[in-house]
Amino acid sequence: MNHNVAVVMNIFRMDPNREFIYERYARQISSCEDTKELQELACKFLRLYLTQQEVVEGLIKRGWLPDDPVLR
């Protein structure tokens, strides 16, 4: 494994409960054969990601989070 990848993985390690949830859903997604369901799920995850980005930007603007690109 590349050293930089290992460093990033250690910085952004999920807690065990979230890792378990991720693994469970990743298996369900991998085994899904219904493309319509996968498209809908992808759109939901994209909306969730973009909403999360807006929330983080708002927290940074209010000074509640540091404006450090390494942490984002």
Protein model, in words:
By secondary structure, this protein is an all-alpha fold. It has two domains: 1-31, no CATH class; 34-72, no CATH class. Helices cover 72% and strands 0% of the residues. It has three helices and no strands. The protein has helices at 3-11, 16-31, 35-61.
Short description:
By secondary structure, this protein is mainly alpha-helical.
- Averaged pLDDT, please? 84
Strand fraction:
under 5%
The number of domains is 2
Number of continuous helical runs: 3
Contiguous runs where pLDDT drops below 50 for at least 5 residues: none
Rg from alpha-carbon coordinates = 16 Å
- Elements, N to C (H/E): HHH
Morphology call: flat
Helix content: over 70%
Structural class given helices, strands, pairing? mainly alpha
Largest sheet: none
Number of strands: 0
Kindly report how far apart the N and C termini lie. Answer: 23 Å
Layout of helices and strands, plus pairs?
Elements: H1 3-11, H2 16-31, H3 35-61
What attributes does this structure have?
single chain, 72 residues, mainly alpha, 0% strand
